[in-house]
N-lysine methyltransferase SETD6
Amino acid sequence: MVGEEGAFVLGWEEVLTEEELSTTLKVLCMSEEEFKEYKEQDGWEDDSEEEENSTLSNEALSRLKPPCKKLLYDSVLLTLESYGSDLKAEQDLLNNKEAYEKLSRREQQALHVRYGQKRILHQLLELVG
């Protein structure tokens, strides 16, 4: 469901891998009975038209059902824990001109990428928290 890397792609305004995330959340939040029915029907063939017209925008994420929001929230926390430092540490390093300039160009670029990723994840925590 999630693809080879097992990750979802999030942007500032919406989920970029919305079909994968939507399907994953639906399946993981199903009761045992709903899952049996899902397996028997080989998925949701009838819902394909409805899903084409929906996007997982930030607004839609904030309206998810509580079990799906909790699952997403906990997943984001686990992802954030996998980083070696927190958002504040990245922000402090970016704001410390002397320390920042001591980093190699590659380390500076990596810092910007990590900081951006963490900001998006923190935004998601606010939406589903």
